[in-house]
């Protein structure tokens, strides 16, 4: 059985469905602060648990035959991490240490972890490979890097088997429209653009049009959430044969203006765009070298066209359940 911590969240819930579709037994644990109970597939067992409650973690391992853990449970707002670092260090670092403690107490040594390209900080070159220097520029990224380092120490001392997946920009929703992205507050570009199109928001602000990029707006690597889900199940299979980190991105860069144009084409609607100053801490371009994911995990992204990715998010926006 696989334990998915944070399996009621955006990437977690898509991964849970993928695991179930591929014959795994899954127990989902979530504190439902940001997660959605409706996002958890009914084939999975659900347990209300919190990383800061060691008793609930211990019970999870006592009551379920867990072989491996996929750990998504974390606060994930970059801006909030700057203003409230304690919330991030306390929940995300101490919470992970509690999780590892419960795992080791029950002789479970396999973990796949949600890391991020934010651990690299300001890119020195693109595409970014895993050898790129890690110098995060905000507490969110520093917390993720700290956890990667904890894994390496636990590997040496306790034989932990770990793969940290460094996501670029997660995007899109399940192809059948059953589950999708729902954050409160929403800060991510694609859902905000789609809310501007549907009329739920007044307009969309483009943060910076004077970057050193072809159209002056920031370039990111948008990776479909079902491609992320696939990578997690491949990583679970590789635990024990490889320890370390793997980038997850398509390797394709798309600018903010290109996202807006693609969303207009997908929806067939135009909407107001406002040009705004740069957002602090946004590098001009971030996209992945994904060779290692292909070589180590045998992974290949299915979605490489941004319009296809946005189409799945648009389907969800029109018929969202939560
Ligand atoms: N962005 C924007 N307007 C918004 C939200 C985001 O122009 O309302 C830009 C942001 O500056 C970045 C890109 O869209 O260049 C992706 O931002 P997002 O917050 O989705 O992800 P991030 O790259 O920060 O993880």
SS strand fraction: 15-25%
- Count of all domains: 2
Integer-rounded radius of gyration: 19 Å
Q: What is the CATH superfamily of the largest domain?
A: NAD(P)-binding Rossmann-like Domain
Structural class: alpha/beta
Strand order, main sheet: write it out: 3-2-1-4-5-6-11
Average pLDDT over all residues? 97
User: How much helical structure, as a percent, in the residues?
Assistant: 25-40%
Largest sheet: 7 strands, parallel
Q: Termini separation (Å)?
A: 27 Å
Task: Provide a count of the helices.
Answer: 10
Number of strands: 13
| The level-1 CATH class of the largest domain | Alpha Beta
The sequence of SSEs as H and E is EHEEHEHHEHEEHEEEHEEHEHH
Shape label: globular
As for the CATH topology of the largest domain, it is Rossmann fold
What ligands does this structure carry? uridine-5'-diphosphate
Notable traits:
single chain; 322 residues; alpha/beta; Rossmann fold; UDP-galactose 4-epimerase, domain 1; 2 domains; 7-stranded parallel β-sheet; two-stranded parallel ribbon; 10 helices; globular; binds uridine-5'-diphosphate
């Amino acid at each position: 059985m696989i334990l998915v911590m944070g399996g009621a969240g955006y990437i977690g819930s898509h991964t849970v469905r993928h695991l179930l579709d591929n014959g795994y037994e899954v127990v989902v644990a979530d504190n439902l602060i940001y997660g959605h109970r409706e996002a958890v597939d009914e084939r999975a067992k659900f347990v209300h648990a919190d990383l800061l409650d060691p008793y609930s973690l211990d019970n999870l391992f006592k009551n379920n035959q867990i072989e491996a853990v996929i750990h998504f449970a974390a606060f994930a707002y970059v801006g909030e991490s700057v203003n409230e670092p304690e919330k991030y260090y306390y929940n995300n670092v101490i919470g992970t240490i509690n999780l590892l403690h419960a795992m080791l107490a029950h002789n479970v040594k396999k973990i796949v972890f949600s890391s991020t390209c934010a651990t690299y900080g300001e890119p020195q070159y693109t595409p970014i490979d895993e050898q790129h220097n890690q110098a995060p520029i905000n507490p969110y990224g520093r917390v993720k890097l700290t956890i990667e380092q904890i894994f390496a120490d636990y590997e040496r001392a306790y034989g932990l088997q770990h793969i940290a997946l460094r996501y670029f920009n997660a995007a899109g929703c399940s192809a059948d429209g059953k589950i999708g992205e729902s954050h409160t507050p929403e800060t991510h570009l694609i859902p905000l653009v789609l809310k501007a199109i549907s009329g739920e928001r007044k307009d969309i602000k483009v943060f910076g049009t004077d970057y050193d990029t072809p159209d002056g707006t920031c370039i990111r690597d948008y990776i479909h959430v079902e491609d992320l889900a696939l990578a997690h199940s491949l990583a679970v299979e590789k635990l024990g044969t490889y320890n370390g980190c793997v980038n997850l991105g398509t390797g394709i860069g798309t600018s903010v203006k290109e996202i807006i144009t693609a969303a207009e084409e997908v929806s067939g609607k135009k909407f107001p765009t406002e040009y705004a100053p740069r957002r602090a801490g946004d590098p001009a371009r971030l996209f992945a070298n994904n060779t290692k994911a292909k070589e180590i995990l045998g992974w290949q992204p299915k979605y490489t066209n941004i319009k296809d990715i946005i189409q799945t998010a648009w389907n969800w926006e029109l018929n969202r359940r939560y």
